[in-house]
Amino acid sequence: SMQRRLNRMLNSSHDHKLLALMDVKGFDPKEITVTVKDGKVKVLAEHEEEHTTARGKEYNYRNITREISLPPGVSEDEVTYSL
């Protein structure tokens, strides 16, 4: 199950603190941008699709934006992320 998998992930990184876990299903890794600046981690995921139909072009756009403040005492260069 998803929960068991998450728990296994959390347990395997016991020497690191997990700040956030995000579901970015439906987004390609290259559509996800992570920046660490001013004591915050910003995650932006953007997905755009273009379909040509009998009525013309249709666009589908969706995005997720999330901003997480770093805990006190954590420096920006300590932050890592993985997809």
UniProtKB/TrEMBL annotation:
The keyword Transit peptide does not apply. Its main location: other. GO terms for biological process: cell differentiation; spermatogenesis. It comes from the Eukaryota. Belongs to the small heat shock protein (HSP20) family. It is found in: Cell projection, Cilium, Flagellum; Cytoplasm, Cytoskeleton, Microtubule organizing center, Centrosome. One of its GO terms (cellular component) is motile cilium. Residues 1-83 form the SHSP domain. Component of the outer dense fibers (ODF) of spermatozoa. ODF are filamentous structures located on the outside of the axoneme in the midpiece and principal piece of the mammalian sperm tail and may help to maintain the passive elastic structures and elastic recoil of the sperm tail. PANTHER family: OUTER DENSE FIBER PROTEIN 1. It comes from Gavia stellata. This is Outer dense fiber protein 1. Keywords: Cell projection, Cilium, Developmental protein, Differentiation, Flagellum, Spermatogenesis. Gene3D superfamilies: 2.60.40.790. The lineage of its organism: Eukaryota, Metazoa, Chordata, Craniata, Vertebrata.
